[in-house]
Design brief:
301 residues, alpha+beta, five-stranded mixed beta sheet, 9 helices, 12 strands, 21% helix, globular, binds ligand MTE
Length: 301
């Protein structure tokens, strides 16, 4: 990848929204003059998107460990202790271990990625994330040749997470990806939003972002990553396998059993919220469709 907009996130570099939007105009000009491929092409297209405000991204959340209301995470997630934080990386890796968050950050290159974000509930945002490619973290641990999947787990802290006393899901929240999805260059471990650290309600200190899949695949506050040979269980699939598949790629042609997925409500578009057509793979088909060649996407939904 020749062109990456690097933006190493440090505590002192806090970008406010206005500065962010100004810098975007410069980048849009630069991107127009370059023939970008891969992630670069997705980022060049992102320049045409209207980013959702920081306020909306950080106050309208799904994080059921803090309650099922959209405002519960911002009200309660301050209770989550995010320092110190360690991520256990285990299973089929050469260098399993408990990795301190700071040690991970010291070894990763943080970049800015502006991605569409589409929730299975049929709403969407555009989020300027900061983060590093999951592939780089997996390289650090050394993936063994028999690994086929990556399993993820969120922290489970009953004392800090008021929502886990309700059996809405089988806690801890778990998710998974096929290894080729996990190592795709668009797959991000996000550590920031708008150049600031990821707020607790959005999954501090690090959460997955898989922009071509429904938002529930983007698991928050990760404490464990396990390389496996078998497809790992995932929380929403365990809760209702008929409604939520392992793949959960955004697909306007495959409706949720209880609602259409053909269009989405744009968060932050005002009182009479604007709707827009949902795009195949959430607009990332050029980058990811080849991962699913030959698969029946109505069966592997
Ligand atoms: N991760 C955990 N641990 N718990 C959750 O409830 N909700 C998922 C996903 N990751 C969730 C989670 C869902 S349904 C969505 S849409 C996104 O997080 C929401 O991310 P956001 O609040 O940053 O927009």
């Amino acid at each position: 990848m020749a062109h990456r907009w690097k933006n190493t996130l440090r505590d002192k570099d806090v970008t406010d929204e206005a500065a962010f939007l100004n810098r975007r105009q410069l980048m849009a000009g630069a991107a127009a003059g370059m023939g970008l491929a891969g992630v670069g092409a997705a980022q060049a297209r992102a320049q045409e998107l209207e980013p959702t405000s920081y306020e909306d991204v950080t106050t309208y959340n799904n994080y059921y460990e803090f309650g099922t209301g959209k405002g519960d995470p911002v009200d309660h997630a301050h209770m989550l202790t995010t320092q110190p934080w360690t991520v256990k990386i285990d299973g089929l890796v050469d260098r399993p271990g408990d990795y301190a968050f700071e040690d991970i950050m010291a070894r990763m290159t943080v970049e800015e990625r502006i991605y569409r974000f589409r929730c299975v509930e049929a709403w969407s945002m555009v989020v300027p994330w900061n983060g590093f490619e999951l592939a780089d973290l997996l390289d650090m641990a050394g993936v063994q040749s028999n690994a086929k999947y990556v399993a993820f787990e969120t922290a489970l802290r009953p004392d800090e997470m008021p929502g886990v006393k309700y059996p809405v899901l089988d806690w801890p929240y778990v998710e998974g990806l096929r290894l080729d999805e996990a190592t795709h260059p668009l797959t991000l471990m996000a550590t920031g939003i708008y150049g600031k650290e990821v707020p607790n309600q959005n999954g501090a200190p690090l959460r997955l972002v898989v922009p071509w899949k429904y938002g529930f695949k983007s698991i928050k506050s990760i404490v464990r990553i396990t390389l496996t040979e078998a497809e790992p269980p995932t929380s929403w699939n365990k809760a209702n396998a008929r409604e939520y598949g392992f793949y959960s790629n955004v697909n306007p042609e495959v409706d949720h059993p209880r609602w259409s997925q053909a269009s989405e409500r744009v968060i932050g578009s005002g009182l009479f919220a604007r709707r827009q057509d949902t795009l195949m793979f959430n607009g990332y088909a050029d980058e990811v469709a080849s991962l699913y060649e030959g698969m029946d996407l109505t069966k592997f939904f």
